[in-house]
Design goal:
690 residues, mainly alpha, 3-stranded antiparallel β-sheet, TPR_rpt, TPR-like_helical_dom_sf, TPR repeat
């Protein structure tokens, strides 16, 4: 009944008095009972969607299934129904719950009781696929999908076939289609418990494209050759499971979208079940919303699915067939998709009304921003807070006003259980360049809920910026553990993990081949990345010995920044101690590349860019800046490119201000004379017409 009211429809009105004893409801309003139920369903700091229908049914399911599963083994399917409870509860939470993952893992280990009923075993494996995909358990999901495919004996592959996609296409070209072949398996039978197909007239309407150019579906030259076999409802669900697994394990790309469209077209060609049909229609809508010729159909199809939820024509017994092994989206998710489509089509006001009706305040705030009503966004959130103060609304107000106090209030109101509060507070710290505070907030949020993939990645990047390589490695390792296919996390984690090993290995390699400039260059890059600045300077010296004219401006910039800002090296020692050696290195580089303005600018930065407390350092810095300026003027093209010209002018004015400061603070006549000459030269340069 909970699934009926929130996923399949048609909705059924239930009162608390029908489910709970009267004694429990005395002196309590229905709103207070609902608030208590929603609070009880909160897990790992992740709250339940506020408009979920009849949440008491879900809570009762959890209590009953937990009590029965722990005390008896005679009811053979209790663990399977507990797994179904986990799937439903997770879908109404804002993010993944580690508690539900632990419970699901303990439930998926008991499948021996289903070995004699192949169709039930197939459904069980398909349900396990969706549960594991929800928690980034991709290897487990693939194993369950493999077993499900073995049970059906289906061979599902992408292939090409000649066909036409548009009405005016004269020549057939290769089209991507789904090929499904069934192996002869005498041991596979659908069984008495296999559901009968639902009449097509009772299923959701498949809206026509009605485009003047594009065909409704691909017109193949030989349609009989690639005609899908007659599939049972469970086999269709297995194909849908393969489609979902493929979608989760592949990046967002045009080719991926074409393959997913092939899956959806095959499933929609022979509709049999509500759950399969609704899932395939939602997938096609998601893929077509970005296509100019299909976006109208996508909107109409989503509206048809929204209307179907309240349509009593199709009985709930038909809608719930294979529901748990197909994972159709919940009602509010389809409505949110419709509102998003309206936004894409420019109907922002209509979308805003839908978001407000669904109490999706974050999306409503975005609509207000698009409409230019910035103050209205704050007003509506404050209005809702007056009705009821919740951590989610406080966090949203913090997002709007960019103030930490609202996140702190949400954190305390949730009794330090709101992962969202600390996550948002950390992101605000990052926006304000407060990296250490941001990292602490991220860690606090992850302490509440460790299954936040994006937050682990953000924490790793923050630690990288803080040069905390050990913390970054741990964060990216957690990111990879959650989702092994996150290529960015894999690459960064591998880089961090092996930089230190590479550093030691290259040191040994140089002992064997001291004359190889390639090894020295690799050693230079690795040393710079791990903060071995002394070794990096030595590598630069050696590379200049081995190769005439060698320079690496990026490495020089890193070394100068480390020394100028006194950053800690890989051993935690202050880099300012390396200043004499860096001066020696820059002296050698500048002597070889005296016409390279960038080298002189780094030399000047090492001496404080003319803003040091030492007059001698300021004198040298301004001298180097003057040389850099002359080098820039000698380069061709700077006076023709506005961006280059602007950069040269800004640096010249900055140097002029430094010379003026030197003139005012200096007592030496010769120094004052040089400052006057420099200022006049820069003045003439800045006034010269271009």
């Amino acid at each position: 009944m909970f699934a009926q009211n929130n996923w399949t429809g048609p909705p059924v009105e239930l009162q608390d008095e029908e489910l709970l004893p009267t004694a429990l409801l005395q002196n309590q309003s229905s709103s207070s009972v609902r608030d208590s139920v929603l609070s009880s369903l909160l897990l790992d700091g992740e709250s339940v969607y506020s408009l979920v229908s009849n949440p008491l049914l879900l809570l009762l399911s959890r209590v009953l299934l937990s009590a029965v599963a722990d005390k008896t083994t005679s009811l053979q399917l209790v663990r399977w129904w507990t797994l179904r409870y986990v799937a439903l509860h997770q879908q109404v939470l804002e993010a993944c719950s580690p508690q539900l993952l632990t419970l699901a893992q303990s439930m998926t280990e008991h499948q021996s009781l289903l070995e004699k009923h192949q169709n039930l075993l197939l459904q069980f494996h398909l349900e396990c696929v969706y549960v594991n995909l929800s928690y980034y358990e991709y290897p487990s999901a693939k194993e369950h999908m493999r077993r499900a495919q073995e049970l059906t004996g289906l061979g599902v592959n992408m292939t090409g076939a000649l066909g036409k996609r548009t009405r005016f296409q004269e020549k057939s070209v290769a089209q991507l289609i789904l090929e499904v072949k069934r192996e002869e398996r005498p041991d596979w039978t659908s069984g008495e418990t296999s559901p009968a197909p639902t009449p097509v007239s009772l299923l959701p309407k498949d809206c026509a494209l009605n485009d003047d150019t594009r065909l409704e579906r691909i017109s193949l030259e030989d349609p009989e050759q690639f005609c899908l076999p007659e599939l049972s409802p469970e086999e269709q669900a297995a194909v849908l499971g393969l489609c979902t697994d493929f979608q989760k394990n592949n990046p967002v790309h045009k080719l991926t979208e074409e393959e997913l469209l092939a899956f959806s077209s095959a499933l929609l060609s022979k509709p049999q079940m509500f759950s399969v049909e609704a899932s395939a229609l939602c997938l096609r809508t998601k893929l077509e919303r970005g296509q100019r010729r299909c976006v109208e159909r996508a909107m109409m199809q989503t509206q048809a699915l929204v209307d179907y939820f309240d349509d009593p024509t199709c009985p709930v017994s038909e809608r719930l067939k294979l529901f748990h092994c197909c994972r159709p989206p919940p009602r509010w998710s389809v409505q949110k998709t419709l509102a998003s489509l309206l936004t894409d089509l420019g109907c922002t006001s209509a979308a805003l009304l839908m978001f407000e009706k669904l109490q999706l305040w974050e999306d409503a705030v975005v609509c207000y921003e698009r409409l230019g009503q910035h103050g209205k966004a704050e007003e509506i959130v404050r209005r809702e807070l007056e009705l009821k103060e919740t951590p989610g609304l406080l966090c949203l107000l913090g997002d709007i006003l960019r103030e930490h106090q609202f996140y702190d209030r949400a954190w305390e109101l949730s009794k330090r259980r709101s992962a969202r509060a600390m996550r948002s507070k950390g992101l605000l710290h990052l926006a304000q360049h407060q990296l250490e505070e941001g990292a602490r907030c991220f860690e606090e949020s992850l302490r509440v809920n460790r299954m936040q993939l994006g937050l682990w990645f953000s924490l790793g990047c923050t630690h990288l910026a803080l040069q905390n390589y050990e913390g970054a490695a741990q964060a990216f390792q957690s990111c990879v553990c959650l989702e092994p296919d996150v290529s960015d996390s894999q690459i960064i984690f591998i880089i961090i993990l092996y930089f230190y090993k590479a550093f030691l290995t290259l040191q040994e390699a140089l002992k064997c081949n001291y004359e190889s400039w390639q090894i020295w260059e690799n050693f230079l890059l690795v040393s710079t990345n791990i903060g071995a600045f002394r070794e990096a300077m030595g590598a630069l010296h050696r590379l200049m010995d081995l190769r005439d004219g060698y320079k690496d401006l990026e490495v020089l910039e890193v070394l100068v920044r480390a020394v100028a800002e006194d950053l800690p090296d890989r051993e935690g020692a202050p880099s300012s101690a390396l200043k004499p050696k860096l001066k020696e290195l820059l002296g050698r580089v500048s002597s070889r590349h005296s016409r390279e303005g960038a080298v002189w600018r780094q030399y000047a930065r090492l001496y404080g860019d003319g803003a040091s407390e030492s007059p001698d350092d300021n004198d040298k810095a301004l001298h180097f800046l003057s040389k850099a300026h002359r080098c820039e003027l000698q380069d061709s093209g700077w006076d023709q490119d506005p961006a280059l010209f602007r950069g040269v002018l800004q640096r010249a004015l900055s140097m002029g201000r430094g010379e003026r400061r030197m003139f005012l603070s200096s007592t030496a006549i010769e120094r004052k004379r040089r400052s006057v000459v420099s200022i006049l030269t820069l003045k003439v340069f800045s006034l010269k017409p271009r």
